[in-house]
Amino acid sequence: MRPQGSPTIRDVAKHAGVSVATVSHVLQGKSSLHAAATVERVRRSAEELSYRPNRTAQNLARRQTRTLGVVVETMTTGRFTANAFCVEVLDGILDFAGEADYQVKIVSLKCNDSQTVAQCVDNGSMDAAALIAPNSDGALVAWAQTAALPIVLVGSLPDGIDIPRVDVDDEAAILNAVRWLTELGHRHIGIITGPPTQWSAVRRENAYARALASAGLEAIASLRYAGDYTYASGQAGAAELMTADPRPTAIICGNDGVAVGALEALHRLHIRVPDEVSILGFDDHDVARWCRPQLTTIRQPFHEMGVKAAELLITAIEGGPVLRKEPIIFPGVLVRRRSTAPPPGLSAPRGARRGGSVP
Length: 359
Known about the structure:
The protein is of the alpha/beta class. The protein has helices at 9-16, 20-27, 36-48, 55-62, 74-77, 84-99, 114-120, 139-144, 170-184, 199-214, 231-241, 256-268, 287-290, 302-317; strands spanning 67-73, 103-109, 128-132, 151-154, 165-169, 189-192, 224-225, 250-253, 278-280, 297-299, 328-331, 333-336, 356-358. The chain contains 14 helices and 13 strands. Helix 10 links the parallel strand 6 (189-192) and strand 7.
């Protein structure tokens, strides 16, 4: 409700000597409908009267909430705040939405069924929604394919599912990482995967197998551990891979949390990293710089991905271009730190640096 005595749009119109419709056009950014002198007169009148638009009334008239939804399936990812991917993407969404005067509503889906999606997401409480790394075979993705709301997915999806999305080129990043490890001399490269319901995990494993084949190496079954993107699976996976024959001299981990779990398991087994085994993560969260040794990993631009998702959604809400089905893909960058080195008995080949970043 407007405070008693506050100027109204009618007061501005009277002060400027124009119609209420003209004031509304100018304040909504439709200045091209009127002469420059008229636009200036309206703006000056609004400023002199200290007029502030009634956002609630405007939004009701437009049937808009000026709210973006951020939807996460926490029945598989666990607590929202414990998931670094979700939190860092959310930061980007919040930054852009705040600048555009939009609110953000966080929706935590704890059940994978269409009724829950309808109650929590498709209920008129938001103008558009960003879906953060949903399961490719879940009810949320099924709903999004026919949703009336503008939808952007942040993360990966199988080919053939047409939802606008923002993603990272994890395939190219893994190919580059495996190529670099083979250049260091590694021939037995293990992997701790992510869950098969996350298409990012499927793509990374496929890229790992292709990179080995390109190097003339075999993807050995005993050097694969089925993980789930958790610290615990990194611990269990590294411990099991160390019993394989041949034993890996390098392990690619599904994400940084898995990699930190692997580092802990190897420490307990008194296996030195990187002198005996190299460890490589994926994400470049803060933990990659905090752990010891510092983690070689692939950097995802989470904040930029969140900003882009919010930009696409707000542009669609405000009458901009229809959201395109072709994904917007950011590059993954290999960040080389202390957790990787040549395998035992070999020195680094000429030109192979221990640190630095490679796109």
